[in-house]
Amino acid sequence: MKMAMHSLAKWILVTGCLVASLTLLAQTPNWSETAPGVWKVSVGKPEMYNLLTAAESQPNMDALAKLGKTDFPLSRTDISLRVEGGKTYLRFPLDREEQLFGFGLNFQTVHQRGKILQLHVDHYGGKDDGRTHAPVPFYVSSKGYGVFVNSARYINVYAGTAARQDSKSPPKLRDRNTDKNWEAHPYSDAVEMLVPAEGVDVYVFGGPTSLDAVRRFNLFNGGGCLPPRWGLGFTQRVNRLYSADDVQKEAQEFEDKKYPLDFIGLEPGWQSKSYPCTFEWDKTRFPQPETFVKTMLSKGIRINLWTNPYVSPEASIYPQLAPYMGSHTVWVGAVTDLTMPKARDIFWGKFAREHVDIGISGYKIDEVDGSDYYLWPDVATFPSGISAEQMRQTYGLLVQKQSTDLYRKRNQRTYGLVRASNAGGSSLPYVIYNDYYRHEDFITALINSGFAGVLWTPEVRASKTSEEWLRRFQTVCFSPMAMINAWASSTKPWSFPDVAEPIREVAQLRMQMMPYWYTEFAKYHFDGTPPFRAMNLEEGFQTDVKKQILTASLEENPYAEAVNKEIKDQYMAGEYLLVAPLFTGQKSRKVVLPKGKWFDFYTGQLVGNGEVITVTPGLDKIPVFVKDGGLIPMMPPLLHAPKADQKVDLEIRHYGEKATQYKLYDDDGETFNYEKGQYSWRTISVERQKNGQWKGSISSPEKGKPNTVGTVTWRFMTSKSTK
Ligand code: GAL
Fold first, then answer.
1. Three-state DSSP class for 235?
2. HSE of 396 in the Cβ direction (CA atoms, 13 Å)?
3. Span from the CA of 146 to the centroid of ligand 1 (angstroms)
4. Residue 7 has pLDDT above 90, yes or no
5. Quick check: 250 and 264 in contact, CB under 8 A?
């Protein structure tokens, strides 16, 4: 009997192990190249509803193919993926020198190695803990690859924080009593993630550079959005209780004072009721909405409408939506289950008829992020059966995608604001903003947006001093949306008279640079390159670090010290520009220049070469530097973006010593005809002639393609030799 028991136990043990190893065998990652340079594996039973299905994003296969072939960037055997107890456990290897970026829209940190996060859609609460407006489950490694977990669940991330028994490079055992190098956070050789679901699709994006991995991620999500030209002009969001007359008066002031203005945002008071919303015009403030919108349009100014999606019981569509509402309310408004086609038709049908059809250019979709105290709780239910957690992670994507479709149907581009997004949303023409207001952190968010496939605006609202006002204004003009959000403060660009002039100058500069911004956004769309991004993605920034650290002591080489620290206050804007903002109280600052020569944007003078410089720019200038050979196409400082068929003259500026070429993008700036080939890339070339003089040329317009380029003039900013 004893013997029998023993054999039974042995049998159970052996079969148990067999079953366990079979399960593990079944889970051995079988990566398949699902798109050029993008590998996918399905672990366990992935859920049907995920970030990519919510965003309805489609990979741009042709553009991915153009990036060329690349190898699977990791050691397959060092990746562990398994399902246990209804949860998915993921592990990816990390090397000693590897740094990690991404994991969504972080506000205070760029380097993510050593972080513990729970990726959760929420308003930003002042700490990089994973709760943010876009907690995108995608990370990029300094070794030139990316990893994306396609789950609409709250994912726990241990980004190089935990050490395992079976680690290949475990931390050193140290005695705290005697060893001063004992560490509270021992070395970790892996990124681990826990997904609360029985399976998930995981993607790996190849390089070879980190920027290539980011490009592949964006292209896999359909490519970055291409805003209409007017979206890159200036926008003012007016006081929440302004009437049609007030808005018209304000627009007139912009015109009279010669401040550019492309669209005005109406805040909650345009609606008859808000929080929850009726989506209906307030007839006392806006007695004739259609006439108002048309009048504004005739002056070259578009109207954008604020809303949150929570439906007031007094809204006309409320009864029709009754079968499609979630179990819980937000400010007593209904939460429509926007995953259900019928619900979408009813909800967006109202927007189409009452706003879009009368000429509204777009939306600011508020409050789709958090916080827990007013949003639906995780115990809420929705008629489609999608869980409250999944709804929370994707509601921002749903409203972006579905509102964009209203415009797509009309062959009209839109550009708006939203307070939550996620992976899959790169192609959706929305910019994230929030109520948090620390200027330094707004810039760090701008840097991190480039790792997350989202856009972010460091919006200007109010300021204590004219210095702060100007410093904030300068940075918003070097961001995806140049905006004052005066919903509460009623501020205007000229609110601080002593800096009204430099404010106007930088707003005009924003307009002058429109051909550059527009081309850089086209690259976001067609090549996946984020228009605003971290220094870490810049060639000659990171690659040099290791070498310099190895060859020089830190005292001898301040550059090595500088780049080894995270750089969260300077960023790249488009192909050529390095922006180094100043914050209130700063008179001068350090700027870390990547390898190669860099030139002052305003004067064209050489400022340095792969080194740390200190700049003291004065109050009226935001420090901007141009890469050697930089070409910046500029137009006159118009007060409104050019119309679809309007030709504009270009002044093309060349910086530095290098002969270069730049592809200038052109299309009608308003429709989706570019998707049918109605666009062109014209080649701008600058070469030095035998006599030493620079000469610029631009290729002819393509026959049958939109051509908005008028007369071209050249300005060689770095005239003197800088050798
Ligand atoms: C906030 C939003 C602000 C403003 C305000 C209007 O939620 O972040 O930008 O729109 O609502 O009530």
1. strand
2. 39
3. 34
4. no
5. yes
Q: Where are the beta strands (DSSP E) in 445-588?
A: 455-456, 482-485, 532-533, 571-573, 577-579
Which secondary-structure segment (H or E) carries 115? strand 115-121
How do 234-237 and 482-485 pair as beta strands? parallel
Which candidate, 496, 497, 429, places its Cα nearest to that of 460? 496
List of E strands, 71-112: 80-84, 87-93, 100-102
Q: How far apart are CA 413 and CA 666, in angstroms?
A: 15
**Cα radius of gyration rounded to whole Å, the chain:** 27
CB-CB contact of 634 with 650 (8 Å): yes
CB-CB neighbours of 318 under 10 Å = 18
Contact 418, 119 (CB under 8 A): no
Give dist(CA 481, CA 129) in Å, integer. Answer: 26
Q: What angle do CA 463, 466, 470 make, to 5 degrees?
A: 85
Sequence-distant (≥ 6) Cβ neighbours of residue 427 within 8 angstroms: 57, 221, 222, 223, 224, 225, 525
Cβ < 6 A, ligand 1 pocket? 240, 267-268, 306, 366-367, 435, 485, 487
Can you give the residue ranges of every domain in the chain? 1-29, 631-716
- Pick from 267, 430, 436 the residue to mutate for probing ligand 1's pocket: most ligand atoms within 8 Å of its CB: 267
- Give residue 104 CA to ligand 1 midpoint distance, Å: 22
386 contacts 439 by C-beta, under 8 angstroms = no
Crossing angle, helix 500-512 and helix 466-476, to 10 degrees?
A: 0
Q: Are 482 and 234 in contact (CB under 8 A)?
A: yes
Closest ligand 1 atom to the C-alpha of 459? 9
Ligand 1 atom 11 nearest Cα? 366
pLDDT digits (tens, 9 = 90+) for 460-484: 999 999 999 999 999 999 999 999 9
Strands (E), 531-679: 532-533, 571-573, 577-579, 589-592, 597-600, 606-609, 612-615, 624-627, 631-634, 648-654, 660-666
Find the 131 Cα to ligand 1 centroid distance in Å.
19
State in Å: Cα 690 to ligand 1 middle: 59
pLDDT band for position 540 (50/70/90)? Answer: confident
pLDDT tens across 146-188, in order? 999 999 999 999 999 999 999 999 999 999 999 999 999 999 9
For residue 299, give the nearest of 267, 254, 257 by alpha carbon: 254
Q: Cβ atoms within 10 A of the Cβ of 303, count?
A: 21
Q: Please check the confidence at residue 3 and state whether its pLDDT lies above 50.
A: no
With the most atoms of ligand 1 within 8 angstroms of its CB, the residue from 306, 431, 436, 485 to mutate is: 306
Task: Record the tokens describing residue 660, joined without a space.
Answer: 């270069």
Other C-beta atoms lying within 10 Å of the C-beta of residue 139: 27
Q: Quick one: how far is CA 624 from the chain centroid?
A: 21
CB-CB contact of 346 with 325 (8 Å): no
Which residue CA neighbors atom 12 of ligand 1 most closely? Answer: 268
